[in-house]
Design brief:
With 99 residues, the chain is mainly α. 80% of the residues lie in helices and 0% in strands.
Length: 99
């Protein structure tokens, strides 16, 4: 009789580890294509919530919240870099220099 109990390993994983790993693995791709103003709103909401709750959060949840804020911040930076790259190649000065 060969029984596999590999699915029980999930029970041995602390809940906040499991949630944060799942969240960090799945959050970035859906937000990458989000409009910049939506990401700003998400960042603002995350910062406001973090500011209000951080004193009462456990260190692990505080770290998770900080990672979420960092994620939104880096997505904003990526959007801004893409916008800058787009304007570099479509600006009149770039077209004059290329001619």
């Amino acid at each position: 009789m060969n029984k596999s109990f590999s699915h029980l390993e999930l029970l041995d994983t602390p809940a906040d580890d499991f949630i944060s790993e799942k969240a960090s693995a799945s959050q970035s791709p859906p937000y990458e294509d989000a409009p910049l103003d939506e990401i700003f709103e998400l960042l603002e909401s995350a910062v406001e919530t973090y500011t209000a709750l951080s004193p009462s959060l456990s260190p692990r949840f505080r770290e998770s919240a900080e990672q979420e804020i960092d994620l939104f911040y880096s997505l904003i930076q990526q959007h801004l870099h893409r916008l800058l790259d787009q304007t570099k190649f479509t600006s009149p000065q770039h077209q004059v220099n290329a001619a």
